[in-house]
Amino acid sequence: MTPRELIDTAEVPGGEPLRLFRRGGDFMIVLERNELMNSRMSGSEEALAVMTLERLGKTQPHLLIGGYGMGFTLRAALAVLGRDARVTVAELVPKIIAWAKGPMAELAAGCLDDPRVRVIEGDVGAVIADGRGTYDAILLDVDNGPDGLTRPGNDGLYSDRGLATARAALKPGGILAVWSAAPDNAFARRLRDADFFVEEVAVRARQNGKGPRHVIWFGTRR
Asked: Is 21 exposed, middle or buried (0-12, 13-18, 19+ CB in 10 A)?
């Protein structure tokens, strides 16, 4: 087997460092012993964008994506959005964006240079709080589920207060979509209690419909 090569390390404000590895043509982003992302498994992250837009039914919306990761969600959204759509990407870790423009530039395929895209290097929670009535959809994939794995400060995104803030940042009928590596019944209840109509969908990790089952919650603002 081809050995895994450490390419770089990134500091996470308020959290443990991320490490970027490469094995052959594949990339992995790792937090301690948890593999957060792998360039071979993009299916559920792409579904986060595609399925949100299917439910939204708009071709020129304003989306907020947090965070960038390996760009799977962003590229999938851009592929189906109209030319007047807007996508704001909030990424807390500057090196994630640097990796997308450096060692993973081929994977990024120029998505960050798309004129529809605006990148904010900062906390997506703060971006949500500043965006009252701004977004047609908010797509969250900043942890492995609705808890602060990447950093404890992310817990607030999934709390009652965090969900209320997200709801306020959405336009009427807007969608909060949250990606997770596993089910979480308590979070689903909180989402319903925050006055969202909730749909929970299981999706496969790989584009070919194989791999682990991941979960996406679609919360539509009533």
From this structure: middle
Above 90 in pLDDT, residue 114?
yes
| Pairing of the two strands 135-140 and 117-120 | unpaired
pLDDT at 148: 62
Give the phi and the psi of residue 28 in degrees, each rounded to 5: -135, 135
What is the Cα gyration radius of the chain? 16
Rounded distance between C-alpha atoms, residue 63 and residue 215, angstroms: 20
Residue-level pLDDT at 152: 67
Band of residue 140 on the pLDDT scale cut at 50, 70, 90 = very high
Distance CA 191, CA 167 (A): 10
Distances (CA, A) of 206 to 124, 141, 201, 218: 26, 16, 15, 20
The SS3 call for residue 53 is helix
147-157 mean pLDDT: 74
Give the model's pLDDT for residue 149.
65
The DSSP string of 88-145 is EEE-S-HHHHHHHHTTTHHHHTTGGG-TTEEEE-S-HHHHHHT-TT-EEEEEE-SSSS
Q: Indicate yes or no: pTM above 0.90.
A: yes
